[in-house]
Amino acid sequence: MNQVQDHRLRSPAAQHDPLWISDQPDLGFHGGMMGSAKVPGWTALNSTPHMYMELHEGDNWQIAQAMNFATQHNLKLLIKNTGHDWFGRSMSRGFMLWTHNIQGSQWHDAFRPANCGHSEPAVSFAAGVQFWQVFQEMKEHKRLVVTGTCATVGHVGFTLGGGYGDYSHFYGSGASNLLEAEVILPSGQQVTASECNEYSDLFKALRGGGPGFGLVTKFTYRTYPEPAVSGMIMGTVSGDMVHNLAEFFAWYKALNEQKKVKHIGGILQLQPGHVIFVNLRFVNLPAEDCQALLQQSSFFNGLTCQQAAVFNDFSDYKSSENGSKGLQPDWLKSMAADLANGVTENQGGDAVLFSLNYALGGTENALRDFEKTSVNPQALATVKFDWMIGRDSPHVVSHGTQVDTTTLKAFEAAKHDVDEVLGGVGGYLNEGDISEENWQEHYWGSNYPFLLEVKKKYDPNNLLTCFQCVGAETIQC
Ligand SMILES: Cc1cc2nc3c(=O)[nH]c(=O)nc-3n(C[C@H](O)[C@H](O)[C@H](O)COP(=O)(O)OP(=O)(O)OC[C@H]3O[C@@H](n4cnc5c(N)ncnc54)[C@H](O)[C@@H]3O)c2cc1C
């Protein structure tokens, strides 16, 4: 067991090494999160665990012992991989199990999930694997796995929270592509769960039901052949932001009606000074056909569809060892500089991020197994609308920080407008809304009563509990 140490977020390593924060057991990716009118922000003050245990491959016995110890001593147990959770779910007060060093992968030509009759190409990733490792392996194996956009996110947290990436409209979510899970339950029992065995209820809960059902040591996912063609639409759009956004949404709505949205995903980031940073991806669509789609809207004036591989090279992207500087590709440096500029310009480090990846439209394949996940069944017709907060914000968030109610009202009105245009309902836990009071309905809809039953069955003592997680309404987080 280890005691937590003080870290300086402003150290050069923290600023220049994209993996540094993920490599620290006691740091979260977001150093603070703005509170809402009702919920206080979380900070170093209320977000640092007291003790942590570093886990490695094969430490199943130690994990079971830690579960028993925490239960006996009535400790709040936390599970952390990278600390990317937006609301600090892996970083509150308590006794932490750090899964970052549970490493390993195995590629299968024909994987048969426990007790199932069918088999298909798949890959198993141990709990600590991050997307930069997945990207690198996808390139080597020429197979696609559904991932999120950012290289530093961990696959387990991603999938537990639904898991939508730039290609989800075509291939589905992390949750819908999950085939099997190895889990250590709060009771200490080690189980393998699939849709075909006696743990099928647990398996469904792990497919988007959020954290809090057990410690996942391994997830196995379906894989796909490398897409024939893919690329990006990247650049900035300046000018009247209200007008430009209206243009964009009209275009995206039309795209949905034309059943072309399956080819396009990604994010729009609204930055200070009426600047919209466009970071979209297209897949299984020739660049010239993609360009023809952009020509349907004046929003994209000057932006082009550029062919690029789905699989980027991350071979020089090695995990740093507790603060030592890792290697990083040049694009990461420029992204960090952009982020820093945005933060400085905006004083508060806030920007609004629209993510388009949340299962709007999609292909038959993307929808395959969707109903077997536990995310909100209405998610099929939703677009995401997010806050993004720069971690280096000069505004230090305190335990009592509240969003000013004028901003909150404007935000709520904007969310409503977007939903009106795009017919969206619901949301998902990973990129959720800290101010959402009806989060049970918002994230899980009609699946919530089922999830609550599964929670009671596998974690009756609420050993694993977190903010806006299943069962959290009965507990003070
Ligand atoms: C820069 C950035 C980009 C992102 N991009 C996307 C995106 O494209 N798509 C998307 O869907 N989401 C995205 N997210 C959200 C992200 O998927 C979630 O925050 C996710 O929960 C992160 O998982 P993690 O394991 O990396 O983080 P952690 O903070 O370590 O864990 C997140 C949650 O999962 C639990 N958990 C982690 N590992 C385990 C385990 N082995 N067993 C049981 N519980 C576990 C933790 O207890 C915690 O509650 C992004 C977040 C950031 C910060």
TrEMBL record:
Keyword Acyltransferase: no
Keyword set, alphabetical order: FAD, Flavoprotein, Oxidoreductase
Ranges where the FAD-binding PCMH-type domain occurs: 45-226
Top-level taxon: Eukaryota
Matching InterPro entries: BBE, FAD-bd_PCMH, FAD-bd_PCMH-like_sf, FAD-bd_PCMH_sub2, FAD-linked_Oxidoreductase, Oxid_FAD_bind_N
Region span, Disordered: 1-21
Co-factor(s): FAD
Pfam families in the cross-refs: BBE (PF08031), FAD_binding_4 (PF01565)
Family note: Belongs to the oxygen-dependent FAD-linked oxidoreductase family.
Protein name: Uncharacterized FAD-linked oxidoreductase ARB_02478
Lineage of source species: Eukaryota, Sar, Alveolata, Dinophyceae, Suessiales
